[in-house]
Amino acid sequence: MVTAEQHTKKSGRRYVYYHCTKKKGRCTEKYVRAEELEAQLRDFIGSLTVPQECVDWLWTKMQEEKDVAKMTRQAELEAIDDQKRELDKKVRVLTQMRLSEEIDREMYREEYNELIQQRVHLEQARHSVAMGNASERFEPLHTAAQLLNLAKNAFENGNSTQKRQLLKIVGLNPTLNDRKLLISAKKPFQQLVERSSFPFWSGKQDELRTLWNTLECSFEELDLGSIKRFVADVEESQGTGKTVPSYSVS
Length: 250
Prior knowledge:
By secondary structure, this protein is mainly alpha-helical.
């Protein structure tokens, strides 16, 4: 792991160096100037690129899936409502039979309770269908692709907080070796970059299925909420003409 340390020269000028945390014992690794480390981090982030065509395609697929799911959900809701109406009709018939003494009280209560229980189950099923997540399959892919698409610009123009957040989201196990930064991308991001080297967004379902099957489990380890908040923060700060502070390490 890497940590920062600030030094002040006799002239009063301050410098920031990075070095090993030495958590695992004595370390002879040399210190690295902040400027040198940032250049290496910039190269690392720059290697994690996803074409805009990929992001746009995933957005389109996500919206298409939402539309299909919406129609499917509506059909399911209508089917459940039809079943509820049939149950209500049976309750009315059953009540009429009891009033006309065609059935005794015990039979009435037994069948009535059974119908009410069925209606409760239908209400629960309706609520579950109505609250269903329509974009569940493509949303994680689009969120990750969107992040990588703006990562380079976010690192070059973002403030120190945004840079740290970005590295925390995408980076894994940063270490120094002879003043060289050794860092890898977290599995979902690395795989997405690799897969985006071929145009899976061309519409070939076999390629998409391969990509999704590879990444599906990997995305479980990501905090998609944090990624969405980071993307929104970067887009807001850069899309509204807001001046983003230059990088500094304190």
